[in-house]
Amino acid sequence: MSIPHILLGLLTERPKHGYELKREHDERLPGAKPVAYGQVYSTLQRLERDGLVAVAETLSDGGPERTVYRLTDKGRERIRSWLSEVEPPAPYVTGALFTRLVLALIAGEDPQRYLDRQRAAHLARMRELTAVKTDPARTTARLLAADHALLHLDADLRWMELAARRLADLTKEIT
Amino acid sequence: MPPVLEARDIAKSFGPTPALRGLSLTIDAGEVVAITGPSGSGKSTLLHCLAGIIRPDAGEVRFGGTRLDRLDEEARTRLRRDNFGVVLQFGHLVPELTAAENIALPLMLAGAEREAAHTAAAEWLDRVGAGECARLRPGDLSGGQIQRVAVARALAGEPSVIFADEPTGALDTIAGEQVLAQLLGAVRSRRATLVLVTHDNQVAAYADREVIVRDGRLVDPVEPAGPAGTGGPPWGMDATLPEVTR
Ligand SMILES: Nc1ncnc2c1ncn2[C@@H]1O[C@H](COP(=O)(O)OP(=O)(O)O)[C@@H](O)[C@H]1O
Ligand SMILES: [Mg+2]
């Protein structure tokens, strides 16, 4: 997830301070890994250095000081251009699974057993995600986040089923 | 709690082809169990043995205290009607009856009044999203509609054990979710037991437990471990994109 782009996107609505951005990131992208406040803070400083955001005001209603940031014209142009692009298709964990499978073969471990264990781990995760999906209190955003993760894990599992069927050929090739 | 279903060392061949080669499985009341495995591995044969549709060549199948493998065809049919709801892989509706009649008939055979049976049929068709099929015969239904009707028929009798062989195979994701919600709802609200054969991993993830059939045998369960089960966020996307600034 590109935190800088998410922050720029959240600032298109109105100026916001760092804690607000962290909270909105976590609440409005409910499936995403919560972002650390420190990362929001350092990202805002970089965005400011690059002229994509600017300080709008500093609030201090009794408590600690809060810097409110606004989008600059350059920042608005940057987020608009990013939103017109598509997400580059990226590998997720399949690469790591393949590495483990090959290493199991090389190390003389039982590769089928590795695939069985990995399947069990994937399916356990998919059960948790299915529980998110079927929770009557879930929001549609959360449902879609779960759908997304489920489809990717399902793709991994299907890849593992194929890997199991091609295991003899792979073994010949690798060892 | 005693198991509701138990298969002990069952074997079944069709001619020279062994479909099950000594397989043991115990299922507790209230469990949702997914039976998965490659195509041709023996999943449907196992389900048919557990549901008393066929008898294994060897081994024992118990439902509660009853040895299903020792009952004759007629006794098994009666036991299935009283206790089991079965959704077979291709629906198996009676072609001469409408969808509503397919559901109402077994209810009437079990003693329901005609009107009550038809009211229940209409309700169950609505629940599985097949209300518009009530007056149609199987020949006029799509594969997905037949599956929904078959699920409604299996659930309408309020069975204590539901067997379903690929019940969502002909449905798209959202229709499948609706049918699964009904199957799961029956299990959770009445402590029924669900045995679900599927090759779809996302369907298997609805079950409490997965048993894998490979070449007519069960795969040994693995020790629970690994990165899953951590309760982390569902959107496991990592920061693989380059940052705007550096
Ligand atoms: N009625 C039958 N007659 C002949 N062979 C059968 C019959 N039913 C199943 N088989 C064979 O038994 C094996 C297991 O089949 P099945 O239980 O349907 O597998 P699955 O449901 O896992 O795809 C396969 O080789 C299949 O061809
Ligand atoms: Mg089958």
Key features of this structure:
heterodimer; A: 175 residues; mainly alpha; Arc Repressor Mutant, subunit A; 2 domains; three-stranded antiparallel beta sheet; 8 helices; 3 strands; 9% strand; B: 246 residues; alpha/beta; Rossmann fold; six-stranded mixed beta sheet; four-stranded antiparallel beta sheet; 7 helices; disordered C terminus; binds adenosine-5'-diphosphate; binds magnesium ion
Description:
The complex is a heterodimer of chains A (175) and B (246). Chain A has 175 residues and is mostly helical. Chain A has two domains: 3-83, Arc Repressor Mutant, subunit A (Orthogonal Bundle), CATH 1.10.10.10; 94-174. Helices cover 66% and strands 9% of the residues of chain A. Chain A contains eight helices and three strands, in the order αβααββααααα. Chain A has helices spanning 3-11, 18-28, 37-49, 73-83, 94-106, 111-134, 140-165, 167-174, and strands at residues 16-17, 53-59, 66-71. Chain A has a three-stranded antiparallel beta sheet. In chain A, strand 2 and strand 3 (66-71) form a beta hairpin. Chain A is elongated and about 65 Å long. By secondary structure, chain B is an alpha/beta fold. Chain B has a single domain, classed as P-loop containing nucleotide triphosphate hydrolases (Rossmann fold, 3-Layer(aba) Sandwich). Chain B is built from seven helices and ten strands. Chain B has helices at 43-50, 73-83, 99-109, 114-127, 143-156, 173-190, 201-204, and strands at 3-14, 17-28, 32-36, 58-63, 66-67, 84-87, 161-165, 193-197, 209-214, 217-218. Chain B has a six-stranded mixed beta sheet with strand order 6-7-8-3-9-10, with helices on both faces. Chain B has a four-stranded antiparallel beta sheet with strand order 2-1-4-5, covered by helices on one side. The termini of chain B are far apart. The relative contact order of chain B is 0.18. Mean pLDDT of chain B is 88; it is low at 226-246. Chains A and B meet through helix 1, helix 3, helix 6 and helix 7 of A and helix 6 and helix 7 of B. Magnesium ion (MG) is lined by residues 43-44, 89, 165 of chain B.
